[in-house]
Amino acid sequence: MAIAPAHARGAWERGWQETALSFLPTDYQTYVQYSAWNGGDLQEWGGACHQFWCIGKIAGGDRLAGQLDPYFALCFTDPTLDSPHHVDESRANPGAFHMHFGMFMQFETRPGGSQAGAFAEGFELVDAAESCGLDGAWLAEMHFTPDRSVLSSPITIASSIATRTRRLRIGMAVYVLPLNNPLRIAEEVATVDQISEGRFDFGIGRSGFARSYDIYGVPYEESRDRFREALEIIMQAWEGEPFSYDGKYHRVTNATVSPMPYQKPHPPFRMAATTAETFPRAGADGYPIFVGLRGMDVPELRDNLKEYRRAWRVAGHEGDGDVSLRVPVYLGSSERAAIEEPFESIQNYFGRMGRLYAAESGSAGIQQTELRDQRAARLSALSYDDILRTKVAFGTAEGLVDRFTELRVELGLDGIVAELNAGGMIPHDVVLRNIRALCEKVMPAFK
């Protein structure tokens, strides 16, 4: 890892170099310059930059001469690329780089609660998100889990959210394409996009679990090919012309879809990336992605994101991709509260995930079985300290700003999708409080 260039070295004081470098991928060369925070000339030193960032205030640092605060700016040089990539100067100023903040919703069924109560609580969270300024609500698709969720028809819920809000974006996280008719998906998504006047985001995936496929009678081993075929049909449908399609799983004859999407040419796509092979494929196709920390740790995710961005650039897409992280979030009144209060719920969350991976083992081929066995074993071995350090974002408002900043820099994030009730055991009034606190005390640092 390279030392800071000479003109920046004067800013390194009292161990700040060690503090800065602790955030960074070890296989990236890193340079530090403070003047860029105040709009200094990047070209003097940034000609080899592939991405430019400014990350949070350095703990214990004094205000520097000519600086607003002791922030440090970082230039990443990716040694895997043959030529310099575009320098995004907006990242040199946190106020100029906007991160998306959304909430992940499952419309949980609480122990002893009713299904009507699950809908009521979910819509109350939507209303709170709309009023406090959260950017988006992202809806899961969950089938045959009455003890956990009532969200088996998220596109219907999306339509309801569209009529009760005026600002909030509504997204799918994700629409499981292989389990639905692609022509019907194209019609329903376009309808919600029209009702919301262009506030719909089309998250897509095929699910990592075979149970719903088994119950629907769809072989999980067909899911990848069914996904690609469904996506091809949807894209053709939104061209607005009569079309036919003769595929392995679907046949379309002279179809013209109506309505067409409000957003042109279609709502923004976002693909779920949960396995290593998905990342380069999504990058090559130019799709923004969802990622998470349930099945992989930060170093593994970072490596996969490198492959995603490499494939994105090789394919000639503009920019550097787009990555949103789904992560459990809890905002406490103190650090102790943020650690102790969500303990039972988050233990239930990861314990349940481990059991799901173990139960699915053997259901979809040797490769998937090995992956699920590994993930089940990893999750079952997690201590609470491991969870706090590697899987969640728990803390005070100031602590969450630091945590999101660290994740943003290490993973190159463009958005956070917060799971505010991971495990389903956080009291509803606390979830409402956390939505408001996230909007009022955390989001402004990234807008």
Explain what the structure shows.
The protein is an alpha/beta fold. The protein folds into 2 domains: 6-95, no CATH class; 98-446, TIM Barrel, CATH 3.20.20. Helix content is 38%, strand content 17%. It contains 14 helices and 15 strands. Strands 4-5-6-8-11-12-13-15 form an 8-stranded parallel barrel, surrounded by 6 helices. It has a 3-stranded antiparallel sheet with strand order 1-3-2, with helices on one face. Strands 9-10 form a two-stranded antiparallel ribbon. The chain starts with 15 loop residues before the first helix and ends in a 5-residue tail after the last helix. 40% of the residues are buried.
Summarize the structure.
This protein is of the alpha/beta class. It is built from 14 helices and 15 strands. It has helices spanning 16-21, 115-132, 154-164, 182-195, 211-216, 223-237, 278-285, 298-314, 335-340, 343-360, 366-380, 384-390, 397-411, 428-442; strands at residues 29-32, 51-57, 71-77, 100-105, 136-139, 169-172, 175-176, 200-205, 243-246, 251-255, 269-272, 289-292, 323-331, 393-395, 415-419.
Topology overview:
Blueprint: H1 16-21, E1 29-32, E2 51-57, E3 71-77, E4 100-105, H2 115-132, E5 136-139, H3 154-164, E6 169-172, E7 175-176, H4 182-195, E8 200-205, H5 211-216, H6 223-237, E9 243-246, E10 251-255, E11 269-272, H7 278-285, E12 289-292, H8 298-314, E13 323-331, H9 335-340, H10 343-360, H11 366-380, H12 384-390, E14 393-395, H13 397-411, E15 415-419, H14 428-442
Parallel strand pairs: 4-5, 4-15, 5-6, 6-8, 7-8, 8-11, 11-12, 12-13, 13-14, 13-15
Antiparallel strand pairs: 1-3, 2-3, 9-10
